[in-house]
From TrEMBL:
InterPro entries: Ammonium/urea_transptr, Urea_transporter. This is Urea transporter. Keywords: Cell membrane, Membrane, Transmembrane, Transmembrane helix. It comes from Curvibacter cyanobacteriorum. Gene3D superfamilies: Ammonium transporter AmtB like domains. The lineage of its organism: Bacteria, Pseudomonadati, Pseudomonadota, Betaproteobacteria, Burkholderiales. The keyword Transmembrane applies.
Length: 327
């Protein structure tokens, strides 16, 4: 185990928060932590706040104990999946001692899974693992609730799918559209709070104005798409059709593909596709009471970033040129 000064550990922990939005900046992470606190203060439930700290610390400490590479550890790359898991479990499970133990265990597992998936996805196809460990670990823990009497969902699982009341343009005024757009951003951390969304957007802007613009436009386009498609009104207005799309917009337009007008257009297409995937996953998982988390973003991000190495506009060309304008 490589020793790590407390200040360096705290900085790595905050960067773990920041890396949820692809940012390597401790101040950005502090903005995100405050955003979680604002939402918890409004709801009266501080479980997600403490859970994010416990999950991030567990994942980071696990990486430290198993002597992971210094740069990924210090930049928060081993922490952000644990942060998200720490927010998710108190959101969906009853907060007893067993649940907190699962946060520690699950967050530690995300660190192991980061390396496992990296050996397959990153080394083979040059695509990011991203939130894959969070989705996989959290899904396994939530699906296991049906098998163990000691675990319980906060809300009972419905045996039938609710009949949606479709979103309409008439439901939206300028203020509500602004609030929903910000909730699309805050729901990346499973927070239904527009003020939290604003703090998160400001935190992203601290590190990357281009990233903040992509997040905002992705959130707005997701609202437009979900409304045009007639998704469930309450789900749309809670931001649950936009959070994965926000990450897709950032990932494809500015993070994993070299920013350009063409990547911006492809990023917009990724947002539309993400909203559709979100609807499919919501319908599939609803009878089990298990959320889709960021799975829609993962599917879209993997599909839209894989071509940067392997999909050719002109297959007869000898060089492996990118369809996104990047060699």
């Amino acid at each position: 185990m490589t020793p790590m000064p407390l200040l360096d550990f705290l900085r790595a922990l905050l960067k773990g928060f920041a890396q949820v939005f692809f940012m390597n900046n401790a101040l950005t992470g502090l903005f995100f932590l405050i955003a979680i606190g604002v939402a918890c203060q409004a709801s009266g439930d501080w479980g997600p706040f403490w859970g994010s700290l416990v999950g991030g610390a567990s994942a980071t400490l696990t990486a430290l104990v198993i002597d992971r590479a210094k740069d990924p550890l210090h930049t928060g790359m081993y922490g952000f999946n644990g942060v998200l898991l720490g927010v998710a479990l108190p959101t969906f499970l009853q907060g007893d001692g067993l649940m907190w133990g699962l946060i520690v265990l699950g967050a530690a597992m995300t660190t192991i899974i980061v390396d496992a998936l990296s050996n397959v996805l990153t080394k083979t196809w040059d695509v990011a693992v991203s939130t894959g460990p969070f989705v996989l670990t959290t899904w396994l823990l939530l699906f296991s609730v049906a098998a163990f009497d000691g675990l319980h969902f906060i809300a009972p699982v419905s045996d039938t799918l609710a009949v949606p009341q479709a979103a309409r343009w008439a439901d939206l005024d300028a203020l509500l559209a602004l609030q929903v757009t910000l909730r699309n951003i805050s729901q990346v951390f499973l927070l239904n709070n527009a003020w939290s969304g604003l703090l998160i957007l400001l935190g992203v802007a601290v590190a990357s104005r281009g990233g903040a613009l992509a997040a905002w436009l992705g959130a707005l386009l997701a609202l437009v798409c979900a409304t045009v498609l007639g998704a469930d009104r309450q789900t749309v207005q809670s931001g649950l059709y936009g959070f994965s799309a926000v990450l897709s917009a950032m990932a494809v337009a500015v993070v994993f593909i070299e920013p350009s007008p063409r990547s911006a257009l492809v990023g917009g297409l990724a947002v539309v596709f993400t909203v559709i995937i979100q609807g499919a996953l919501n319908h599939w998982l609803a009878p089990y009471g298990v959320p889709s988390l960021t799975a829609a973003y993962l599917i879209a991000m993997w599909l839209f970033t894989l071509p940067k190495m392997d999909l050719l506009i002109h297959p007869h060309q000898p060089n492996r040129s990118s369809s996104f304008g990047r060699n």
